Amino acid sequence: MSQRAKPRAGLLRSAIAGSLFFAGCGGGGGNIGGSSTNVPSVAPSVTPTPAASSPPALPAAAAMLGSCRAFPADNPWNTDISSYPVDPNSANYLNEMNPSGSIDLHPDFGSNPTYGIPINIVSIVPANFTPITFTGYPSESDPGPYPIPASPAIESGSDMHMLIVDNDNCKLYETFATTGSSAAGWTASNGALFDLSSDALRPEGWTSADAAGLPIAAGLVRFSEVQAGAINHAVRFTLPKTTAGHIHPATHDAETSSDQWAAPMGLRLRLKASYNLSGFHGESLVVLTALKRYGMILADNGSPFYITGETNTGWDDNDLDQMKTVPGSAFEVVTTGAVLP
């Protein structure tokens, strides 16, 4: 049975505020406002070199949320990074993440309905959109109303994420620490709206319902795609120690460590091409194949090497448990852009 991740350490605003702007997709450009002493510099432009071997071919399909494409094909979440270069500081990052060498990959979802994060797919006319009040980060939240159904599914535990896909207009609404009801009104710490047809990022320095300012639903391991045989996007993962820096598409920091090689939000890991998948099968094989091609993006503070999936009672826990044998040393950090303060 998959275990739940530790509660997030909290959304912490970076001490170094970046300029507010919207950016397109891709790996981040140069540093903004100088460099921080505890943020390692990463070259923003490196020509990709082929990996040692290619991951298995995947069925051609777009990443979907409901009937909507989950961001354009060129979006960072949907970018094949199997041939991207290994970050020159990959070993330093991984030694910081996994100093004992004993940490393994962990699926933070399973058949228990209190595991994972649910996704609400809705079709609601504009007149039925619901007001919502933000109490934690109102200045960094997209104001309501939100298309909240009468009885939305909300993540169990302390984070209480609510993810809503407006299936008619292909918009994604996400909130953190969500409470309330249709009768009493809705409240959340913060909320974010994403246009699923756009590559636009959050304003620089802004959070979202996730610490890194990223869309949560885009990085969830989704039951339907695994059953179809392929995940065609990167996966969301957590670490307990993160630094005051981020790499696009992340826009926000949640510093919990000043160690030199603590990971910045948005750091992207890839399962090594050399890691043998011949002993895996079923749901785990689908996930691990995707981690070779699309990798996983650091999105929040939490337990180390925990990847997040959709809440669904149909998951096969025995199958998913195969992933718990994959060591952290089987991963490498890839260069996707500059670390921004």
Question: Uncertain regions: pLDDT < 50 for 5+ in a row?
Answer: 1-56
Shape: globular
End-to-end Cα distance:
38 Å
Which bin fits the share of residues in helices?
A: under 10%
The biggest beta sheet is recorded as: 6 strands, mixed
Radius of gyration: 19 Å
Count of strand segments: 17
Count of DSSP-assigned helices: 4
SSE sequence, one letter per element:
EEHEEEEEEEEHEEEEHEEHE
Strand content: 15-25%
Strand arrangement in the largest pleated sheet:
3-16-11-15-14-17
Helix vs. strand class: mainly beta
Mean pLDDT: 86
The number of domains is: 1
Can you walk me through this structure?
The protein has 341 residues and is mainly β. The chain has one domain (64-334). It contains four helices and 17 strands. It has helices spanning 90-97, 223-228, 282-293, 317-320; strands at residues 64-65, 68-69, 106-108, 119-122, 132-134, 162-166, 171-176, 179-181, 185-188, 190-195, 235-239, 242-246, 263-265, 268-271, 296-301, 306-308, 331-334. The strands form five sheets. The protein has a six-stranded mixed beta sheet with strand order 3-16-11-15-14-17. The model is unreliable at 1-56 (pLDDT under 50).
Summarize the structure.
This protein is mostly beta strands. Helix content is 9%, strand content 20%. The protein has one domain (64-334).
Based on the model shown, name its key terms.
341 residues; mainly beta; six-stranded mixed sheet; 20% strand
Please outline the helices and strands:
Layout: E1 64-65, E2 68-69, H1 90-97, E3 106-108, E4 119-122, E5 132-134, E6 162-166, E7 171-176, E8 179-181, E9 185-188, E10 190-195, H2 223-228, E11 235-239, E12 242-246, E13 263-265, E14 268-271, H3 282-293, E15 296-301, E16 306-308, H4 317-320, E17 331-334
Parallel strand pairs: 3-16, 4-6, 5-9, 11-15, 12-13
Antiparallel strand pairs: 1-2, 6-7, 7-10, 8-9, 11-16, 14-15, 14-17
